[in-house]
């Protein structure tokens, strides 16, 4: 006999927990949470919190090695002990058992395992079945796999694996100049790795203003990072203890090879009964079909341009604005409209208005 609930939530990350809490608090719902990998989701386990622990160390190393002597502090050259850095990071992460204890204490049923939808109201986890009036799927996202020939054969790592390293790689190739790639690139560069960041777009930090992205690129180059933009990683292969990446500029100029000790790229998560390799092959095949449109789609670290409604204020976009609220006043009534791509994330875009911010 299947156990009955008002709501079943598949996933246990931030969105899943918020949905469960709202259902229980506002409607008195009996809620079950199902999780197969990480109670708490990515942010507290393998993203926001642990990466910031690494950044603190990287910033301190940088300050010691660049300004300590100028300030009259004699400490010698500081070096990163990655095993000890990882151990401290691990000590800051909430144990999985504690997550389960806290969720149970909040009144939620917790079920560990992979969920399979049987029908509109039934979920199977192993040999157990659960039923509910409503099912909320909050499993998070999976980064896309760039179409790089041979990438599955070279022993790559992703951002999660990078947080588990105990030995610093001599050199590191980062695929993608978005937020995650830049964060890990700078961190490992300051730890002591020789880092190269490659992106298919014309600039890193693609959602930033060109001037801001240029300043960021200059700062990263000051950290010793080689920035290669407007370039695809065409293929990878293993040559002894090194990874050889073939770099193909989008302007058709001559290709070049880059040799590194380690490759950092997104990892496809296992879904259902598919293996990592099967899923990766499916993703790469799908991506290759769209490669003829690469100029329009612009692959970079799993990001794709999306055309979607965004909140705007005074005829311009409001970066980071809450999309559940309304930001444009029109005769005292707030409303939302679609912003053209050229205005997105451009604080000074659009004509100046004397009445801006007054609700006129």
Describe the structure.
The protein has ten helices and 17 strands. It folds into three domains: 3-137, FAD/NAD(P)-binding domain (3-Layer(bba) Sandwich); 151-269 and 276-297, FAD/NAD(P)-binding domain (3-Layer(bba) Sandwich); 306-354, no CATH class. It has 360 residues and is of the alpha/beta class. The model is unreliable at 268-280 and 286-360 (pLDDT under 50). It starts with a strand and ends in a 25-residue tail after the last strand. Helix 3 packs across helix 4 (82-92) and helix 3 packs across helix 7. The strands form five sheets. A six-stranded mixed beta sheet has the order 3-2-1-6-5-4, covered by helices on one side. A four-stranded parallel beta sheet has the order 9-8-7-13. The protein has helices at residues 14-27, 42-46, 48-67, 82-92, 96-105, 159-162, 179-191, 210-222, 276-289, 294-297; strands at residues 3-10, 31-35, 109-112, 115-119, 122-125, 128-137, 171-175, 194-198, 226-228, 231-239, 242-249, 256-260, 262-264, 312-313, 316-317, 328-330, 333-335.
SSE topology sketch:
Layout: E1 3-10, H1 14-27, E2 31-35, H2 42-46, H3 48-67, H4 82-92, H5 96-105, E3 109-112, E4 115-119, E5 122-125, E6 128-137, H6 159-162, E7 171-175, H7 179-191, E8 194-198, H8 210-222, E9 226-228, E10 231-239, E11 242-249, E12 256-260, E13 262-264, H9 276-289, H10 294-297, E14 312-313, E15 316-317, E16 328-330, E17 333-335
Parallel strand pairs: 1-2, 1-6, 2-3, 7-8, 7-13, 8-9
Antiparallel strand pairs: 4-5, 5-6, 10-11, 11-12, 14-15, 16-17
Helix pairs in contact: 3-4, 3-7
């Amino acid at each position: 006999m299947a156990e009955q609930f008002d709501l079943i939530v598949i996933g246990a990350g931030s969105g899943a927990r918020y949905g469960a809490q709202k259902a229980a608090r506002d409607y008195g719902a009996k809620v079950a949470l199902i999780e197969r990998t990480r109670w708490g989701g990515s942010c507290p386990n393998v993203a926001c919190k642990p990466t910031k622990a690494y950044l603190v160390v990287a910033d301190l190393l940088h300050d010691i090695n660049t300004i300590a002597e100028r300030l009259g502090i004699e400490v010698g050259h500081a070096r990163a002990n990655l095993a000890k850095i990882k151990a401290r990071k691990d000590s800051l992460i909430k144990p999985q058992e504690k997550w389960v204890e806290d969720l149970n204490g909040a009144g939620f049923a917790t079920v560990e395992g992979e969920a399979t939808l049987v029908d509109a109201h039934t979920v199977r986890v192993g040999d157990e079945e659960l039923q509910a009036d409503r099912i909320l799927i909050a499993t998070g996202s999976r980064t896309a796999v760039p179409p790089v020939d041979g990438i599955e054969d070279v022993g790559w790592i992703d951002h999660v694996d990078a947080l588990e390293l105990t030995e610093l790689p001599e050199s590191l190739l980062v695929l993608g100049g978005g937020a995650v790639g830049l964060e890990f690139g700078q961190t490992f560069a300051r730890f002591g790795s020789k880092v190269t960041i490659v992106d298919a777009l014309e600039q890193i930090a693609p959602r930033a203003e060109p001037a801001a992205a240029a300043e960021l690129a200059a700062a990263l180059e000051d950290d010793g990072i080689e920035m290669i933009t407007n370039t695809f990683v065409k293929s990878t292969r293993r040559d002894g203890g090194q990874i050889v990446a073939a770099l193909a500029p989008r302007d058709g100029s001559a290709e070049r090879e880059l040799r590194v000790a380690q490759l950092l790229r997104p990892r496809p998560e296992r879904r259902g009964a598919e293996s990592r390799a099967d899923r990766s092959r499916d993703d790469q095949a799908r991506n290759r079909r769209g490669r003829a449109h690469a100029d329009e789609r612009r692959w970079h670290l799993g990001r794709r341009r999306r055309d979607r409604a965004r909140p705007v204020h005074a005829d311009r976009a409001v970066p980071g604005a809450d999309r559940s609220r309304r930001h444009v006043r029109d005769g005292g009534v707030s409303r939302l409209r679609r912003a053209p791509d050229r205005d997105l994330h451009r604080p000074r875009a659009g004509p100046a208005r004397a009445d801006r911010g007054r609700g006129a």
